[in-house]
Amino acid sequence: MPWFKYVPVLFMLFLVLPAVSASQVNSPLPCKNTIKVGYNDWPPYAWQDPQGEAQGLDVDLMRAFTVYLGCEVHFINVPAKRSHQMLRAGQLDVLMGATMTDERQNYALFSTYYRDEELRLFVLYEQKDQINIDKWEDIFTQKLRLLVPSSGWYGADYQESQYRLEQEHLLVLSPDSNKSVQMLIYGRGDMIVGDTLAMPYIASQHQRIKLVPLKLVLDQNHIHLMFSKASIKTSQLEQFNHAIKALMDNGEIARVINKWQQMTLAKQSNMSRLNSPLTTLYVSP
């Protein structure tokens, strides 16, 4: 083919390439520095494996978002309360699995939601036929003791009646969800409040017991990434929102969530009840 037939193509590339380069130079980078992501042990969403690596559903999604944007990411395991203090100070850039509240918006930016959360009450499998709750008030009329991890959001009904639960000696606070499960085993409470995916996973994987959810749904929320106002700009947030939309549209988010849902069901069906609680670490799938 004569060389001059390539001239129109070369001319068009000459016109297009400068425009693309200019767009890249002028657009803000989503992460000039490594993104510092705080997390605490909340399986199956996030936890630290025996090798010190972050694992879990939210961890997988965060890695997918940063790979899409070309970012480096560093996961830092910290207690829940300290992680919010570090985010406020800009020592952490992102927290995963966050519910948006007015108080948190004072010091954090929130991405568009990337998954949903459902909160329910759980009982031991052996007690599934003895305990039935149709409405929140049944807790008080039946005098059922409620085990609640001390940190987290557990719905408007709980928030509004927390003082009443304390006054009627129906509230038993625990340090975390795993301790709640242990206390349930030892009869310190009748029910646990928790996330519909996390609570059965923790019970089966850590304590080797099966929990059954009651039909009452306490709350349903959109879940977001939570960015530090001290270290992340609005332009960077917008690029993460773009990544979330792209991975939602191409099915990657749904694939990751489905993988962990199936894994949780498999662990519940394969576990066996032991006579005493285990103290083993969570293991990577």
From TrEMBL:
Keyword Repeat: no
Recorded family membership: Belongs to the bacterial solute-binding protein 3 family.
InterPro entries reported for this sequence: Solute-binding_3/MltF_N
Protein name: Amino acid ABC transporter substrate-binding protein
SUPFAM superfamilies listed in its UniProt record: Periplasmic binding protein-like II
Domain Solute-binding protein family 3/N-terminal positions: 34-264
Glycoprotein as UniProt keyword: no
Pfam families per UniProt: SBP_bac_3 (PF00497)
Lineage: Bacteria, Pseudomonadati, Pseudomonadota, Gammaproteobacteria, Alteromonadales
Species this protein is from: Shewanella oncorhynchi
Keywords: Signal
Residues making up the signal peptide according to the UniProt record: 1-21
